[in-house]
Every structure is written in C-alpha cells, then in structure tokens.
C-alpha cells in the first residue's frame, strides 16, 4: 500500500533536501558495517517481528523497511521527509512489497493517527550522525516511540554510546596550520588563528589511523533508546573532564541491538561512512607527566527535528581548548573523568552525575597513555 497524498512541500527544508539525492543513500547502503548490522539485528528478531507492525523512521530508499518485511512483518510504515521517498515507493513496488510496506512522505512529527492508524510493535531507525548526535534524527525517533509504539515494544537500535580517546596527530596540525607560513614565498600566517577557530566551528570528520589514538577509549555517554526523553538530550550534568595533554580528541559511537548485533565506528574497527569526529586543540601541547586538560565535552542534536545540530565541543576553562566559546549550559553530556598522568593507576571508575537515570552516562574504561 502506498501513501502519496502528502504535499511534498510540507517536508521541504535544507536538512531533508540534503537527503533527496541518490548518492548519499548509495554511500549509506554500501557501508557494509552499517547495513550489515541492521540486517543482522532484524534477522535476529525475526520471531518477534513476524506478523507484527514496524515503524521505520527516516526510511531513505526503504532498505531497512524491506528487511523488516522480508523478516515477516505484517505491516511496515516507512516515513521519509526527503524527496527520496518517491524512489522508495517505486523500489518497494518493484520488489513486490507494496502490500506490506507503506511509504509516507513527511516529517515524523507531522505524521498523524490518520496515516499510522495502529500502534506498532517495533520502531526501527538509522538515526545516528557524526559523533552520534550531530544530526537531528533521535528526537524524531523519540516522538515516534512515544506516540505510536506499544508498551514494551522493540526499539532498534536500543542502546547508543559515545566514546572518546586522546589524539596525537601532528601531521594533521602542521598540514592545516603550518601551510600558511609560506605560501609561494608570502607570509599568510595570520590565517592560522582562523584555521584553529574553524576546527571548533566545524570539527574535521575523517578516518583516524589507529596509531594516532594514544590512549584507551572512555565511554562518556550511554543512551537507552527505549526510555530517553527529548529533554534529557539537553540536560546539563555536573563535573569536569581531565586527561593528559595531547593535541586533540577523537570521538566515535557504537550502537547495539539487544545484544544480537552491534555497530561500531571506532578507529580500531573497519571504516564506516561516519568516520570519526576530531576535536583539535587550538595548538599542540606536549604529553608531560602530571599535565592535564580540564574542561567539559558537550554535544547535542538540533533544538528542533530537521535543524542542524551544534557541533561537539571540548571546553577547557584553562589551558588548551577545542571549542569556539564558553557555554553556561553544556547540553546532554558533560561528565567527569579524573586520572593521574603516567603511569596510570586508576581509582574506582567515576560516574557522570546525570539528573536523568535514563542516560546512564558513565566512564567504563580508563584513559591509558
């Protein structure tokens, strides 16, 4: 069954328009780590999905919705705000699944009970952005879950975590900043400061060679997708973040599907289309025994679904900094990690003092240099 009655103009917007082309969807589908993890998760839950109703939030070309249909779902509502929805409808029909998968074009928040006419057993979505939250799909998933999912339903993925480790990459720094010292015999070094500011406004996203990661990874946030609330994503927490001085931080995320499948964007794992997000300090600082960087790591989705998120940042009140400006209210995650410098003999693992138990943000692994 196809729903083509919604006015396409209602879903317009630069964010959704960026997903209207085919190229970005090819890149995502071709990411075997991503697509394979979702396929494995859906197949692992086939018994729970058979004969049930699924809601795919941000279905794109419909690949996940069709996975669910092939796994035996009785009905799949596939919601997509961008213009690629028309291609999804054609693909669904070409594969003989239009009797199961209904593609609805529109923002999830605009979809009413006249279009999704029953409660669903599973909310499925590939909502993750760079550094997990640098994309505004999680609020849409929360909306879908709260309005349409039956109590105790499945949310795929069910857990998402953010990880951070220290980065030592002087070549990256020298290529970006040192470039301006001599440009065909001219001194352009005045642009070096602007280059460093640009790192804060638009953190680089690229593959980080594993040898550039100079510490163990620390889990700095955990989201339970079945219980997290929209307001939790902007809830400040107490604490500071400390680690031995280096010239940047590298961020990545993992998601889990009830233990049946997982997806990691770690630099230690195969490359994905999310790569890693790099927070470069404005200037490099030598790794010195006893030296520390004190500050707060913060990131959040856009204030409204479909709006661009504020980039992740690391705020250091003193010493090195990797953020454009101080924040009075650091959103979502701002946790504490206290470690001695070399050699490490860590005390008991500290926890983020979040006011929302549903976030359960904590540090699981000591940073080890």
UniProtKB/TrEMBL annotation:
Coiled coil: none annotated. GO terms for biological process: methylation. It catalyses: L-arginyl-[protein] + S-adenosyl-L-methionine = N(omega)-methyl-L-arginyl-[protein] + S-adenosyl-L-homocysteine + H(+). It comes from the Eukaryota. Keywords: Methyltransferase, S-adenosyl-L-methionine, Transferase. Its EC number is 2.1.1.319. Residues 316-325, 357-369 have a biased composition (Low complexity). Residues 159-303 form the Protein arginine N-methyltransferase domain. Residues 297-328, 343-369 are annotated as: Disordered. Residues 54-153 form the Methyltransferase domain. GO terms for molecular function: histone methyltransferase activity; protein-arginine omega-N asymmetric methyltransferase activity. The keyword Ribonucleoprotein does not apply. This is type I protein arginine methyltransferase. It comes from Micromonas pusilla (strain CCMP1545) (Picoplanktonic green alga).
């Amino acid at each position: 069954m196809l729903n083509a009655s919604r006015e396409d103009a209602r879903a317009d917007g630069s964010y959704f328009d960026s997903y209207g082309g085919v190229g970005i969807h090819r890149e995502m589908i071709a990411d075997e780590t991503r697509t394979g993890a979702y396929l494995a998760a859906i197949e692992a839950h086939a018994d729970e999905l058979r004969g049930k109703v699924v809601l795919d939030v941000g279905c794109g070309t419909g690949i996940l919705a069709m996975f669910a249909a092939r796994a035996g779902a009785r009905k799949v509502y596939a919601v997509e705000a961008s213009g690629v929805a028309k291609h999804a409808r054609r693909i669904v029909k070409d594969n003989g699944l239009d009797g199961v998968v209904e593609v609805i074009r529109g923002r999830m928040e605009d979809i009413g009970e006249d279009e999704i006419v029953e409660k669903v057993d599973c909310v499925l979505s590939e909502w993750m952005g760079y550094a997990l939250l640098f994309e505004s799909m999680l609020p849409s998933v929360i909306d879908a879950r709260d309005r349409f999912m039956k109590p105790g339903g499945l949310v795929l993925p069910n857990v998402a975590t953010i990880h951070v480790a220290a980065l030592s990459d002087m070549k990256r720094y020298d290529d970006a900043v040192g470039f301006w010292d001599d440009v065909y015999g001219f001194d352009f070094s005045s642009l070096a400061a602007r280059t460093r500011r640009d790192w804060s406004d638009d953190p680089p996203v690229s593959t980080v060679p594993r040898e550039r990661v100079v510490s163990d990874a620390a889990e700095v946030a955990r989201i339970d997708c079945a219980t997290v609330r929209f307001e939790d994503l902007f809830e400040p927490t107490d604490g500071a973040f400390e680690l031995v001085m280096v010239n940047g931080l590298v961020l990545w995320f993992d998601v889990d599907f009830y233990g049946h499948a997982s997806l990691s964007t770690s630099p230690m794992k195969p490359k994905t289309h999310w790569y890693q997000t790099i927070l470069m300090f404005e200037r490099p600082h030598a790794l010195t025994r006893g030296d520390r960087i004190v500050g707060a790591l913060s990131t959040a989705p856009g204030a409204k679904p479909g709006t661009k998120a504020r980039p992740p940042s690391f705020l250091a009140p003193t010493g090195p900094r990797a953020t454009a400006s101080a924040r009075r209210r650091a959103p979502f995650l701002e946790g504490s990690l206290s470690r001695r410098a070399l050699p490490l003999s860590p005390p008991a693992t500290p926890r983020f003092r979040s006011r929302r138990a549903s976030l359960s943000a904590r540090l699981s692994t000591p940073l080890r240099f």
